[in-house]
Specification:
- By secondary structure, the chain is mainly α.
- The protein is about 70% helix and about 0% strand.
- It contains eleven helices and no strands.
């Protein structure tokens, strides 16, 4: 856990000494004493044991949250992503993974599952799934995807906010090389899901991921047109 992440968690949870003590005093006596006893025991173990205990508690809580919200999230995720040919994201195991990723980015576990929190999480999950699809497209398939969005403003936003950063990342990682014949434009990269997720979180901030997730339900996605063979359409003029 990095120093920056620790500070981020403090900022997100407003855990600075004075504010923490003020909130602590508002808790019920039994809650205060339970917390004090738990912190005392926690302080008595080694840093390695503290790290393991905290990680186990976090994982346990996230598993519990995923189980409680599986039906709610699965139905809403499926409604949006079936249009993109994805129907497995709502599985309990995957939801736990996304809860954990979301926790790492936000630094907090919600005390209460509110509709607002679940909507943010929903957009986060959908946004990642759409980004995974774009990462696996060839450049010409990416082009076809943003060109069928209709409104010019949406096309520009999809290209410059999402597709161009993905292309730049693939080039930076030397997974694709520009060549005079332009063959790189029609080449698909081969990446594991874990590597794609690593790239997504290196390239995109949480806000952009959620924004794409919110937009996804209104995006056009014509699989037959997007994934047709190279040079099969005279409209395929590469856009760099």
């Amino acid at each position: 856990m990095t120093q920056e992440f620790r500070y981020k968690r403090f900022d997100k949870g407003h855990i600075i000494p004075e504010s923490f003590l003020e909130e602590f005093r508002t808790k019920a006596p039994s809650t205060r004493r339970y917390l004090l006893n738990s912190l005392t025991l926690f302080a008595c173990i080694s840093p390695e044991q503290q790290h393991q205990a905290l990680n186990d508690l976090i994982q346990s809580e996230l598993v519990s949250l995923a189980k409680k919200t599986q039906n709610y999230l699965h139905d809403r995720i499926h409604t949006v992503l079936k249009h993109f040919g994805i129907d497995e994201t709502g599985e309990s195991k995957k939801l736990v993974e996304y809860y954990y990723r979301y926790y790492l980015l936000t630094g907090t576990i919600p005390e209460n599952l509110t509709t607002e929190y679940l909507n943010h999480l929903l957009n986060f999950i959908i946004g990642i799934e759409v980004l995974k699809i774009i990462f696996m497209m060839s450049f010409i398939e990416q082009q076809r995807f943003f060109e069928i969005q209709g409104r010019y403003a949406i096309q520009v936003m999809i290209f410059y906010r999402y597709i161009k950063p993905i292309r730049d990342k693939l080039m930076l990682e030397k997974l694709l090389y520009r060549d005079v014949t332009g063959s790189f434009y029609y080449t698909k990269v081969s990446l594991s899901e874990d590597k794609i997720l690593d790239y997504i979180f290196e390239v995109f901030q949480l806000e952009k991921i959620e924004s794409l997730g919110e937009l996804a339900k209104d995006l056009q996605f014509d699989r037959e047109y997007i994934y047709k063979p190279p040079h099969a359409d005279e409209r395929d003029v590469p856009v760099f």
